[in-house]
Queue: 3 jobs
Job 1
Amino acid sequence: MAERSTQQRLRDFIAAGIAIAKQKPGLALLLYLVNGLVSLVVAMPAFFALQRALGDSGWGKDLAGSFNLPVWTDIWNVLFQADADGGVAPEIKILTTLLFFAIPLMWLWKALASVGVVNAVRDNGMRGFWSGVGRYGGRAILLALPWFLISLIAVAGVGFAMSLIASTIRTEKAVYWSFTIGMPVLSILVLALLDLMHDYGRIGIVAREEKASKAFFNGISMPFRNPGALAVYAIWFFAGLVLLVLPGFLDTWMTSGTWIGLIALIVLQQLLMVLRSGVTVGWFGSEVAYFEAVRFHDEPLIAEGELQSGVEARTGFDVSGVDASSPTGSDPAADNPKQPGNVADWRSGPGHEPIA
């Protein structure tokens, strides 16, 4: 059988993710509901704060359609100098308190939910989300801590590099490109690479029962040992990015001057958010499929190497080149054509070869 092309294997992994997302609609709905609930709780004080600032000015409709810097400056002044002592509005105090608790809680939820999703999408979706959270949640939190710190350091490093470039060239164009284009784009790319490594660390915790420390280093090495992981990640990253920015574009493009238009816009945006949660499930599904392909491709070689080392240590003989599965040192599959192919043949079969 001819070896499958890289494009065919890549399509297989993406198709596996799409299939598991279709198989697990409840999982996508769970992720959407949790994210939506937290967003709603945070948005309520923000809504009342804007209502306080705008009052009966009539600027609300204009702000819904476009960005107006002078109006936003007035809103800032009203909300952050709301009382006689120059303090902030009570809605801002509530919002700050909510964010103080919501941000770490959402970080904790993301860490737990990631291993829950990985557990739910592996083995053709036969396992459960909550069992994965309970079994692997502790290690997922330990793994997320260093990645959180590394992400902060990486963003700070990008900012420092852009500042250095702007201060060295010292032109208005250099400053503009460094901070308006270079810093956000480079930060996104760096964080995406770190997120890819983090993903495969999570998968290692669940699929291989690895400790957090081992999963951390295996995750770092994954895109270097198997560059195909970059292609799988990039496709889902692009899909997720489109669904992330599309609701904002719809808010700008679609007119919501009537209640019907406003309701239609909200419903459409929420449907896109549900779809984005489905992309998260499919994303992990494709990465798990790729991880398992790499695992099945590599582990027989690892097992053969460990067996050879053990025999040599016990006997003192060099057994390289000898087939340990056959007493005579020959390949039983080659000696008997009626027997199924050996491990190497199985590893090279369709569906089990990772992208080079």
Job 2
Amino acid sequence: MDPFGRVMMGGLAVVMFVMLLRATMTGVVYNEGDAVSADDNPSGFVLNVVVDTAGMFFFGALAAGYTIDDMWQVALKLLNLKTGMA
């Protein structure tokens, strides 16, 4: 990925980090204009936080120079699955 793309991915990861920090401090996640509160809808809040955390790590890894294939190989190793690739 070119340097500009890596900066963009890093920026997205930072924005998601700030969004997660605000969500954990206030107990409210804003998703497409709707507020999901930890008090009113705890499962929706947790689901949003988990998905946003995964996105943050994904964009951070892309910014660090990893490719999607690298991340796929790590996921397969974590799951102890083998592919037919050499």
Job 3
Amino acid sequence: MKRTGCKMSSTDGLFGNGVYDENIKYKKYNAEYYYQTLFNIYKNIQPILDGKHCKKFHF
């Protein structure tokens, strides 16, 4: 980001159709719209995300 001068970074998107409208409350793509789907996919790997294997995960 320093090299390119980018002023923003995003780790999630907003779910909707068409042009963005600031008056609409959009669901967050992974955190809200697909949360249950992602939870079901990754629920069985929880033991490897216990904080002992990777210090970048915060629960």
